[in-house]
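Help needed: design a sequence for this.
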């Protein structure tokens, strides 16, 4: 059975070399298979099948919320899938750059180029067993780290996407922009503006325990000094985004990036994939009618989100395997004919 793993941490110990300048660590997490089994779904870039994967690096924080979602094969027969989670402080992380209107993309939270570097200081490590967390009420466990702080590990079944009764593999493609966001950035002489980015989270609810949480699944780039941001297009697997349920509740949250302190929350709006697709603008990228309203904790509108693109591409798994089979057969015959031609010539 495939399961998804979400990670977040709180109040980690600060091991930054520049903490004397009030700098915080740049934490990332890796997951490895403790018993070296091959029952993990690994990245194509990962030559070591004991490594499940690595999160993005979160900048200058001791309470990271990672957007990376890990997919792991839980061994139901053995009822035993041990994993080791290690949190490290990225030494390679450099000063964060943001995208301006004329700059190339620099993401808000960088992805590690390598799965782990032993030069990066260890901020904590725990051994977990997937089945034990999966069977808990709320399907989440809090671990106390010897180095300081807590790690929260959430495990939930990865529900296959279905469309009209057929198993499918799906990807959500979207692009959004913001309009008229409230400027909470004073800046030099009051001339500054916010540096906005957005996050998408999916709703988790355990009917047995009544626990409800939001799990982060995507984070955009931040854009410097603007109240009308135009974020880059993105795509995300439907299983990761909403477990294949186009009506599952999602939350779109907007933040102001802060270089030297914690990012500031501006507001949020709850939507579904279906609602996003129905909200695609029909009057241009600045069309306010039909735009999503982002509200703060007092219910006041702090900005609008215009949906420029929102569509789902679905591929039947049966059709997918049939197409791959035909393609493999076609390539085999091509290589065979090329080989015969070389021999004859």
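Sure. Designed sequence:
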């Amino acid at each position: 059975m495939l399961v998804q793993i979400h990670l977040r941490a709180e109040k980690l110990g600060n091991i930054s070399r520049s903490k004397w300048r009030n700098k915080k660590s740049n934490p990332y997490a890796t997951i490895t298979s403790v018993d070296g089994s091959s029952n993990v779904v690994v990245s194509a870039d990962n030559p070591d099948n004991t490594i499940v994967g690595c999160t993005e690096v979160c900048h200058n924080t001791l309470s990271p919320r990672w957007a990376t979602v890990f997919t792991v094969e839980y061994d139901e027969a053995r009822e035993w899938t041990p994993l080791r989670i290690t949190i490290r402080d990225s030494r390679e992380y450099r000063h964060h750059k943001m995208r301006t209107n004329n700059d190339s993309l620099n993401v808000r939270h960088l992805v590690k180029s390598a799965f782990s570097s032993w030069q990066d200081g260890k901020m904590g490590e725990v051994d977990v067993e997937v089945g034990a967390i999966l069977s808990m009420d709320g399907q989440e466990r809090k671990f106390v780290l010897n180095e300081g702080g807590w790690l929260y590990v959430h495990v939930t079944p990865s529900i296959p996407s279905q469309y009209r009764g057929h198993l499918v593999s799906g990807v959500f493609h979207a692009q959004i922009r913001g309009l008229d966001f409230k400027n909470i950035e004073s800046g030099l002489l009051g001339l500054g503006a916010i540096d906005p980015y957005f996050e998408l989270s999916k709703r988790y609810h355990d009917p047995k325990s009544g626990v409800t949480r939001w799990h982060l699944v995507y984070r955009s780039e931040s854009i410097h000094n603007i109240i009308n941001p135009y974020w880059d297009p993105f795509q995300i697997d439907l299983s990761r985004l909403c477990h294949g349920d186009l009506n599952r509740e999602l939350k779109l949250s907007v933040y102001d990036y802060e270089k030297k302190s914690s990012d500031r929350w501006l507001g949020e709006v709850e939507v579904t994939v279906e609602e996003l697709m129905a909200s695609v603008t029909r009057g241009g990228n600045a069309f306010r009618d039909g735009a999503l309203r982002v509200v703060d904790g007092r219910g006041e509108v702090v900005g609008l989100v215009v949906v420029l693109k929102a569509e789902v591409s679905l591929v039947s798994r049966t059709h997918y395997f049939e197409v791959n089979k035909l393609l493999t057969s076609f390539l085999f015959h091509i290589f065979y004919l090329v080989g015969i031609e070389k021999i004859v010539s």
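The two ends are 52 Å apart (CA to CA).
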